[in-house]
Write a structure and sequence with these properties.
Elements (H helix, E strand, L loop, with lengths): L1 H22 L7 H22 L1
Helix pairs in contact: 1-2
Length: about 55
Amino acid sequence: MANSELETLKTEIEELRQEINTYIQYPEIFKEELIEASQKIDVLINKYIFLSK
C-alpha cells in the first residue's frame, strides 16, 4: 500500500513541477498560481519523505 501511495505522490509531484515550469515563464502573470503550486509541492514532498522512512 505504501509503495502505491509513494508512486501516486511522485506522479503528483512531477505534474506540479511541470505546472511550475510553465508558470515560471511568465511569473508576473501567474504569481498566484506559482505560489499555490509551490505550496502544494512542498506539502507533497514532505508527505513523500515521511512515508518513505
